[in-house]
Amino acid sequence: EVQLVESGGGLVQPGGSLRLSCAASGFIFSTSVMSWVRQAPGKGLEWVSGINSDGSTWYADPMKGRFTISRDNAKNMVYLQMNSLKPEDTAVYYCATHGIRGQGTQVTVSS
Fold first, then answer.
1. pLDDT of 22-33, one tens digit each?
2. How many CB atoms lie within 10 A of CB 69?
3. Contact predicate 87/28, CB 8 Å
4. CA distance 40 to 89
5. What whole-number percentage of the chain has pLDDT above 90?
6. Region 61-75 average pLDDT
7. Is residue 40 classed exposed, middle or buried when 0-12, 13-18 and 19+ CB atoms within 10 A define those classes?
């Protein structure tokens, strides 16, 4: 059973930073593409970033230069470092793979 558990969300001021973590289990993590998606209040799911098994990464345009995705295959963990956060980044952030996403972690950017 695929399990994804996100953590690291919280309240941060505009311009601040947060690091999200996702603990994965129940599948072969090292060969899996991992993604982060988010859902803002009243909006649909938005793809944020992805990382391949070889470490290659992709980002949605609004996140380029501000967010960094990474993975630790030894720990079955994927991370999302978010810098220069904006109020429009407020959302529930989910880790996703194989058509599954976790329960999410809330990120609120507000002064």
1. 999 999 999 999
2. 22
3. no
4. 8
5. 100
6. 97
7. middle
What is the per-residue burial (b if ≥16 Cβ within 10 Å, else e) of 41-55? eeeeeeebbbbeeee
Rounded to whole angstroms, the Cα distance separating 68 from 107 reads 16
Which letter does DSSP use for residue 9 in this model? -
> Exposed, middle or buried: residue 27 (CB in 10 Å: 0-12, 13-18, 19+)?
middle
Rounded to 5 degrees, φ, ψ at 30 are -65, -25
**CA 47 – CA 73 distance, rounded (Å):** 22
Per cent of the chain over pLDDT 70 is: 100
Residues shown for the chain: 111
Q: Using CA atoms, how far apart are residues 39 and 95, in angstroms rounded to an integer?
A: 12
User: Which two three-digit tokens encode residue 12?
Assistant: 């941060």
Cα–Cα distance measured from residue 47 to residue 66, given in angstroms and rounded to the nearest whole number:
15
